[in-house]
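Hey, resending since the last one bounced:
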Amino acid sequence: MPPDERDGQEPEEEFVKVDRRASREAGKGEEAQAGPEAETDQQEGRPEPTGAAGKPEEERPELNVYSLLRMSVGMYVEQAWIHLGLRADPTTNKTETNLPLAKVAIDTVTFIVEELQPDLDASEKRELETLLANLRINYVRRA
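The structure tokens again:
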């Protein structure tokens, strides 16, 4: 807004965008100031470049088979509870029991936990064993 149209408003602060990509490409340790194109990107709300996981590349955790198995445990546990009829299906908001599918989910969690054994610390091991025991007890009660 031009100064004469602000009607007594405080002047807007000016920001300087620093583009670290330019200094990396040049191999310099110092930050280089970005040109008008970078300011346009920032003003238009475009996100800064990130890695495949959506985090800056320096912050991305290592992704290996064990971390993938840990992530998948939660999905199968959730399916087991849904098919045991103890949680509502988030897609239908209905609670239905399907014991054959609950058994497959519990067996899958059991397999994944067995494969994770070499990479588990004592507390993770206890937590997963308790989780499996709870699933199995609830399956027997429903069967």
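Helices lie at 20-26, 36-43, 65-83, 99-116, 122-142.

Sorry for the duplicate.
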